[in-house]
Structure formats: C-alpha cells, structure tokens
Write a structure and sequence with these properties.
9 helices; mainly alpha; 185 residues
C-alpha cells in the first residue's frame, strides 16, 4: 500500500506528462497476471519468494545500469514478458518496477514522460497487488518515513541531473534487492 502512496505526490506534480495509452497494454497484462501469479505461488515458502524477488531486482538493476537496449521490448512478446515479470516481482517482493523500467528505457521517452507514466502505472499496479495479496495497513513509522522521503525527493528532484537521479534510483533499488536477499538467507 505504501508503494502506491509513494507515487501519488510525484504524479500530482508531473501528471501532464503521463502517457497512459502506450503503457495501457502493459498494465493490462500485469493486472491480469497478478492474481494468477499470487494463486500459483500461494503455497511457496515466503523466504524463497523474497530471495527470488531480491535476485530479480538485482538482475533488473544490472540490466538497466548496463544500458540494455533491444527492439524486442517494443514487440508484443516483449510487453507480455515485461508485464508478467513485473507482476511476479511485485507479488513476491513488492518490487514490480525493474521489468517496467527496462521496457520504458527501451521506449526512449523523455525523463518527465517516463517519470509521470511510471508513477501512474505503479499506483494502479501496487493497489491491485495489495488487494490480491492482502491489504496491510501501514503503521505510523512507515507513514512518517513515506512523508519525509516524499518531501526530500520532491525538494531534491529539481536539483538533480537525469544521470544523478538515475544512478540514485539504481543504487536504492540495488540496496533493496540486497536487503531482500540478506533478510532471507
């Protein structure tokens, strides 16, 4: 639930740049795959799922950092694999962004269009995933951390170059993937 909330403030600032049409098919695949993935993994040990999620996040970070570009992502099978991959990672680790980040990087959108469109996608995806896997009310500490992080991000974002912001996102994502691994070994 916090993941969905974390995109609300940035989207409110950049909503004019959002392009829902190009990503609608990807979102549809992700939303259709989410309950299927949750059902298929319902009996799997949570530690194993967290480890798989951590590996998936780290792999996504490595591929994004490498600058991977492929026309495959622009084809229907690329969108299908991306949508399903995002659903899997979001169900197992609450981190569906890396596959979508690869897809969007290959769309070659402007930074404002990328940010706004991804925030809209992630709000919908995270709300649906929360409903499918079970809503968990955040406690006050998490809400305060979200508020502080959102305020800091909104203050810093205009001051960072695209490269610095990208590097920061990749580092934070990698740390999250490592934390999933470390917490479940």
């Amino acid at each position: 639930m916090l993941a969905a909330c974390s995109s609300v403030v940035p989207l409110a600032r950049e909503w004019r740049h959002a392009q829902p049409r190009p990503i609608a098919g990807l979102l549809a695949v992700t939303l259709l795959a989410t309950p299927v993935v949750a059902w298929a993994l319902r009996g799997v040990d949570h530690r194993a799922l967290a480890l798989a999620g951590g590996v998936g996040v780290i792999l996504g970070v490595v591929l994004l950092a490498s600058g991977l570009r492929s026309a495959w992502f622009r084809r229907p099978e690329g969108a299908l694999a991306t949508g399903v991959g995002s659903a899997v990672l979001n169900v197992v680790g609450g981190v569906g962004g890396p596959p979508v980040g690869l897809w969007v990087a290959n769309a070659e959108w402007s930074p404002p269009r990328t940010r706004a469109t991804l925030h809209g996608f992630l709000i919908v995806q995270n709300l649906v995933t929360a409903v499918v896997v079970g809503l968990v009310a955040p406690d006050l500490r998490h809400l305060l951390a979200l508020a502080v992080g959102s305020a800091a991000g909104m203050a810093l974002a205009p001051r960072l170059s695209v490269g610095a912001a990208r590097s920061g996102i990749l580092v934070v994502s990698a740390v999250g993937g490592i934390a999933l691994l470390a917490g479940n070994v």
